[in-house]
Amino acid sequence: MVRPAYSNKLTNQQTKKQKRMAYDKFDIIKSTAVPLPIENVDTDQIIPARFLKATERVGFGDNLFRDWRYNTDGSLKTDFVLNNPVYKGKILLGGKNFGSGSSREHAAWAIYDYGFRAVVSSFFADIFRGNCLNIGVLPVQVSAEFLDRIFEAVHANPETELEINLNNQSITLLSSGEKETFDISGYKKENMLNGFDDIDYLQNIKSEINDFAAKLPF
Question: How far is residue 183 CA from its own chain's centroid?
């Protein structure tokens, strides 16, 4: 039985059929960044297990890095980067092996809900990377040397901007012009460019699926 070939480009007809976007479209982000130069940041630190009871993907940003952001009495830890008004932006900079630990999707939800649209690191845990791509957060993996230069630039000047171009699969440190490319699957790339999750993608090729099913001999 011949299966229809997969194409990572939506046709004009499919684009017109788009009913909704699951998440923000991602094309080019030009933003300052929040530096978190800690290696092996695991998902239990990103969103502690006691906050996983909710079933909707909203509200998790309030508890992003909860134990690092707050004291036990609920007051802010002033030395944590998210509580430092000097650092802001849509890009989170993380150390090597970001997102290790359990496979909880809530870690990616918390990052998105807080307002980050990209995480930059020299290495991501595979499951965390996939969870981010599924919900509209772009994991940008760069070399360790380039990551160090980005951290240095942001620490020296918190107004330093990065430009992440998903279509070109590139990240640029605008203050110096240094640039690297990053990898992403064609399918996930196209979904992010269109603001789709996996269900949106299937909904927008529904007629093609029905046409294929109608031709099956059973």
Answer: 13
Report the SS3 class of residue 29.
strand
pTM for the full predicted model: 0.83
pLDDT of residue 167: 96
Instruction: Tell me what the mean pLDDT of segment 9-28 comes to.
Output: 57
- Cα 12 to Cα 10: distance, rounded to the nearest angstrom: 7
Domain-located, residue 7: no
Q: What is the CATH number of the domain that holds 191?
A: 3.20.19.10
Q: How far apart are CA 183 and CA 37, in angstroms?
A: 22
Answer for the pair 28, 165: CB distance below 8 angstroms, yes or no.
yes
Split into its structural domains, the chain has a count of 1
103 secondary structure, DSSP code: -
Residue 2 lies in a domain: no
Residue 182 and residue 21: Cα distance in Å, rounded?
A: 25
> Domain limits at 77?
14-214
Q: Residue 99's CB: how many other CB atoms inside 10 A?
A: 28
Could you tell me whether strands 178-181 and 28-31 are parallel, antiparallel, or unpaired per DSSP bridges? unpaired
Alpha-carbon dihedral sign for residues 74, 79, 84, 89:
negative
5 in a domain, yes or no?
no
Closest CA to 106 of 71, 57, 73: 57
- Measure the CA–CA gap between 7 and 35, rounded to whole angstroms: 37
Residue with tokens 């788009």: 18
